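Example for tutorial group B:
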């Protein structure tokens, strides 16, 4: 009797572990992502770039937000990033928004 009760409990625990959705830890949400593309527009605290999307096999416009912690590389400020510039962005997704960790401006070729 004890053996069958133990097997029943173990089966239920195993079944619950298999069908429960995996938990996403807060650390996973804060993992950095990287992208690069061409600046489409720049406005107050927002950079929109055209980047390649492998899922749709084409270009799409994506919005990124500058935060107080955002770092600028090879450029002094957001005001120096122009439409048509090539950039590389490191970002995290928080509250469904792309928050820039750092943005690198590629130098214009002459």
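The residue assignment follows.
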């Amino acid at each position: 009797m004890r053996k069958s009760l133990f097997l029943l409990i173990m089966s239920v625990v195993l079944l619950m572990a298999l069908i429960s959705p995996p938990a996403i830890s807060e650390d996973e949400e804060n993992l950095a992502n990287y992208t690069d593309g061409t600046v489409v527009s720049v406005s107050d605290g927002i950079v929109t770039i055209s980047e390649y999307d492998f899922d749709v096999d084409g270009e799409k416009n994506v919005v990124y937000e500058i935060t107080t912690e955002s770092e600028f590389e090879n450029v002094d400020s957001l005001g120096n990033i122009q439409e048509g510039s090539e950039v590389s962005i490191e970002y995290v997704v928080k509250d469904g928004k792309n928050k820039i960790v750092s943005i690198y401006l590629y130098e214009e070729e002459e």
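The beta strands are 33-43, 46-53, 58-65, 71-73, 86-94, 97-105. Compare this with the pattern of hydrophobic and polar residues in the output above.
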